[in-house]
Amino acid sequence: MNPPVSSTAPAAASAPSAAAPARGANRCAAVARALGEAVLGSAPETCDAWVLVEHPGPWPAHGLPPDVPADVAEFIERLPAYRIRPQLVRRPGNRRPVPPHQVYVAYSGGPHGAPVWMERREVADLRELLDLDVAAVSRGERPNWGTEHREPVLLVCTHGKREPCCAQFGRPTVRTLHAAYGEPVWETTHVGGDRFAANLVALPHGSYHGLVTEPVAAEVGAACLRGEVDLAHYRGRMGLPHAAQAAEWFVRSHTGIRTVEAVRTLGHVERADGGTTVDLTAAGRMFRVTVRTARSGCPRLTSCSQGSVTDPDGFVLDDLRELSAPTG
Questions:
Q1: Does residue 4 surpass a pLDDT of 80?
Q2: Where is the region Disordered (predicted)?
Q3: Distances (CA, A) of 11 to 6, 29, 51, 124, 257
Q4: Which of 110, 183, 222, 227 counts the highest number of beta carbons within 10 A?
């Protein structure tokens, strides 16, 4: 067993790049950027799968647009109970008229790293969604509702009615990504983490990147399209506990491994002292990492839409060691 890494490592190696514009300088994402807030360990942990439904908008701040049929709206609103995250999506710029609607269904691997997959289907009527076997999707099984889709999909939250920072930072970011990469890029509704706008999510892996501004958008997008992460902006992988996401970040920082699928969480144990110990594999190597949360000591606006002023937790590395053999 190798000796542990120093427990005094900071929560993140460096702050994401690019200064906030003067307009909206007091908004939550601008404040997070100005303070150099670390984004690691902040991806949503309550869902493992996705349903993306093309809708050109306008999107209300909460709920679904009124033109979504009532039975379809009821179906979509039930999805989170199956650990499936529903999203509305649309093309940047000149939006494609609907119907037909593009619909994607994806599974991001869940907390135990099951195989990821994605299906795509074009529907003339949104009521075709009612035929989707959501129980199978929640178990990580392909429902064969659509055709297999092997290319990554990039989502950028531009949901300005929900959170003004997502419009301010998300729209320039998605324009840059769409100009660079075209077809894989979509605007989407709220993905979580207001103060980390612009937020970029890559499917099928459910990898989240935050504070992605226009100058770095193409670089971060290129990493996602290669099936990698950009560590300076990497929030974590959806469906994993926050502490496991943080542990993954520290292992990637220690090893230099960037491929999404090369690092997998095996399990985690919450300790009596408030820390969490996480076992991981990284490109065939075994690691045990202990992290804990710590307040920043700087209360500030963390959500413009909710008017929330809090002192958010960040993650600190207590211990990182490589194991000589798998643990029992």
A1: no
A2: 1-20
A3: 13, 18, 32, 48, 18
A4: 110
